[in-house]
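ping. complex inputs:
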Amino acid sequence: MAAMIAVKVQSEPFDASAEAATLSRGRTDVGAVVTFTGICRGSENGEAIAALTLEHYPGMAETEIESHVAEAAQRWPLTGAIVIHRFGRIVPGEDIMMVATASSHRAAAFEAAEFLMDYLKTRAPFWKQVEKASGSAIETSWVEARADDDSAAARWVKPHQAAE
Amino acid sequence: MKIRYFAWVRERIGKPEEDVVVPAGIATVAELMTWLAGRGEEYAYAFDNPKVIRAAIDRSHVKPQAEIAGAREIAFFPPMTGG
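pong. complex structure:
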């Protein structure tokens, strides 16, 4: 059976456990489902935040995620994969995004999920803006990219790609 | 050619997108950034440190030395922070 793939870029909230459940429902070839959910924290660098606003590049965000999910499905024997990423204003406690990968065995599901997360952080065109909870005035700032996200993504580069 | 800006690049320039006629002789993404930076204070501010600006041609990531010939849409943005 072909891998069940779903990529969604949306402003609406989603139900991560219900989404992940679709990867194994009615199938007997799935032995492992790994899920990761990114959640909006209530503080950033020790300061309370009111919300995160995620900006994205419509069109490019979907194709960038789709191409990495397709690559994951080539590199690991997946039975399915789901990536959902929200944009717009998200308040603390709400889910921002999820990755779920399914396979017959756990190693492939774990590795594919990590690969997708590392690539999403460095290649998917989304930007986070923090809204601070400072009295009545709304103070915003952009989250800076982290160098360790780049090094995490670099570990998945195949030797022939590194030479390019 | 359509140029799009995202996140703080968009905020600094003050618009999300525009159509520009790029002069002949501007061949690469890096040259386009230099040319844009000369268009006014807000552009100079946005492209103040071109090393940190990422670019995409027709919605695919490209390096600064990429050729812009034939591009329909070029986007400039800071390093991504999704996930």
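The beta strands of chain A are 4-10, 32-39, 43-44, 47-56, 78-86, 88-90, 95-103, 126-134, 137-142.
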